[in-house]
Design brief:
The chain contains 12 helices and 11 strands. With 412 residues, the protein is an alpha+beta fold. The protein folds into 4 domains: 3-51; 66-112; 138-288, Nucleotidyltransferase, domain 5; 314-376, no CATH class. It is elongated and about 125 Å long.
C-alpha cells in the first residue's frame, strides 16, 4: 500500500474501532463525508483490502495494443528515425493513418533509444519582448546556411522573412549563399505578395549595414540599404541573436520540419525546393501563425508595376563616358551607340541599372541608350566570408564529385 492508502486505512480504523467522528475523518483525508461512509462499509466487509482501488493492476482500455506499438516502432526506426515526437506524431496521423499523442510517441522513442532529453545548462536570461500589434510593422529577416538536402545536393542558404506580429512566413527563398542579390529576390516576393512593410529587423552583417569604422567615403548605405531607402522601409539591426529570437527559432524549426518534408517528397535541388516553398508556407501558417492584436495591416500596398519594382530593386551606378563613348564596368568595356554625332555625349555622365535577372540598362539624361560589349578583361577573384565560403567550395568540388559518381557507376 502507498503512504496515502496507509493514512486512509489508519483514519478509517479509528472511525470503526475508536469512534472517531466521520466529519473529522473527512477533514483529515480531504474527502466528503459520503465517501467516508463508503470507506467504512468497505472496511467492515473486507478490512483494509477493501480500501484499495478496484482499478489497481488493471490494464487501461486506452492502452495501445502490442501490434500497434510494434507497427509504430517500425515506422520510427525506418521512416521517422530522426523526427521529433511532435512531428513524428503528425506524420503518423497524416501519412500512416495512426493517431497517437506526441507523448506516446516520445515514450516509444525513449524505449527504443531514439530520443534523449536535452540537458539544459544555466544560460543568460533574455526577457521576452511583446509582439508588434500589426501585421507588417516589423519583419525579421535572416539567412540560414545548412545542409538542407542532407547530402543530396550542395549546402545552401534559406532566406527567411517572418512577421513579428503573427509569426507568418512572408517570404522564403533558397539560394546558394546569403548574398544581397538573394535577399532582393526574397524582398521582391514579399512586396508582390503583401506590400511594403514598415521595417526590417536583421543582424549586423555587411549586407545590411556598413561595418567598416574607417570608411570615409560613400553614402553610408549598403546596396540592400539603398533599396530599402528607395522603398521607404526602415532597417533595424539587432545587437544579439536573442533580440531577433523569432526568426532564430523559426530557423531551428525549419531545419527540422522543412528538411523532412523535402525528404518525404524527394526534393533534391534548389529549383524544386523553391517551387515547394509556397506549399510549405501554407502548412506553416496553419500550424504556427497567430492573429495580430490589431486587424489593420501596416503594409503599404505596392501601386507600381513589376517593372517599377524591378527598377527599385536594381543596383544603380553612374559612369563618365570617354571621348570615344565607352565606359567600363567590372572588367568589361562597353560602347554606346549615340543618336546623331554623339559630340554632346562625349565625357557625359550616364546612369546604369543592374537588374536582378542580370540585364543592364544605360540611361543618358533619363533616356535609355543602346550599348554593346567591346572587350573583357581579367578581374580579381571575389573575396569570400563565412556566408559564402560553403557555396564557393561546393562549386569548386562539383567537377570532382561528378567524376567520382561517373567512375563509381562505370565500376558497378
Amino acid at each position: 500500500m502507498s503512504s496515502r492508502e496507509l493514512e486512509k486505512a489508519f483514519v478509517i480504523r479509528q472511525v470503526v474501532d475508536e469512534g472517531l467522528r466521520q466529519r473529522v475523518a473527512a477533514e483529515r483525508l480531504g474527502i466528503s463525508i459520503r465517501q467516508v461512509k463508503r470507506l467504512v462499509r468497505r472496511w467492515k466487509d473486507d478490512g483494509a483490502a477493501g480500501l484499495l482501488s478496484g482499478h489497481r493492476d488493471r490494464v487501461s482500455p486506452l492502452r495501445l495494443g502490442a501490434e500497434t506499438q510494434a507497427l509504430i516502432a517500425g515506422y520510427l526506426r525506418e521512416k521517422y528515425l530522426d523526427f521529433g515526437a511532435t512531428l513524428a506524431a503528425e506524420k503518423l496521423a497524416e501519412l500512416e493513418g495512426i493517431t497517437v499523442s506526441k507523448e506516446t510517441v516520445r515514450k516509444l522513442q525513449i524505449a527504443l533509444g531514439l530520443w534523449q532529453p536535452k540537458v539544459r545548462g544555466i544560460k543568460r536570461v533574455f526577457q521576452a519582448r511583446d509582439r508588434r500589434p500589426r501585421f507588417g510593422e516589423l519583419v525579421q529577416i535572416d539567412g540560414s546556411p545548412h545542409d538542407w538536402f542532407e547530402g543530396r545536393a550542395p549546402k545552401c542558404t534559406l532566406l527567411v522573412f517572418i512577421d513579428d506580429a503573427t509569426s507568418r512566413l512572408t517570404a522564403l527563398h533558397f539560394a546558394p549563399a546569403e548574398t544581397t542579390r538573394a535577399y532582393l529576390f526574397a524582398l521582391k516576393a514579399h512586396v508582390l505578395a503583401h506590400g511594403v512593410p514598415l521595417a526590417f529587423y536583421s543582424d549586423k552583417h555587411g549586407i545590411f549595414r556598413v561595418n567598416a569604422k574607417e570608411a570615409v567615403s560613400g553614402d553610408g548605405y549598403t546596396e540592400f540599404g539603398r533599396v530599402l531607402r528607395r522603398l521607404n522601409i526602415a532597417s533595424l539591426c539587432a545587437s544579439t541573436p536573442q533580440a531577433k529570437g523569432r526568426v532564430e527559432r523559426a530557423n531551428q524549426t525549419l531545419q527540422d520540419r522543412l528538411i523532412k518534408e523535402m525528404r518525404l517528397r524527394g526534393i533534391n535541388d534548389i529549383a524544386e525546393a523553391n517551387l515547394f516553398l509556397p506549399i510549405f508556407i501554407a502548412m506553416w501558417h496553419k500550424k504556427f501563425a497567430v492573429p495580430p492584436r490589431e486587424e489593420a495591416d501596416a503594409h503599404r500596398p505596392w501601386l507600381g508595376t513589376r517593372e517599377t519594382l524591378d527598377a527599385a530593386l536594381a543596383r544603380h551606378d553612374t559612369r563618365t563616358l570617354s571621348k570615344d563613348l565607352t565606359f567600363r564596368v567590372a572588367g568589361t568595356l562597353y560602347g554606346v551607340k549615340p543618336q546623331g554625332s554623339g559630340i554632346t555625349m562625349s565625357q557625359g555622365r550616364i546612369h546604369l541599372q543592374h537588374f536582378l535577372d542580370g540585364s543592364m540598362q544605360v540611361q543618358y539624361k533619363d533616356k535609355p541608350i543602346i550599348w554593346h560589349i567591346l572587350k573583357t578583361f581579367p578581374v580579381p577573384s571575389p573575396t569570400e566570408d563565412e556566408k559564402t565560403i560553403d557555396s564557393r567550395m561546393a562549386a569548386l568540388l562539383a567537377p570532382t564529385q561528378k567524376y567520382l559518381e561517373n567512375h563509381s557507376a562505370k565500376a558497378a
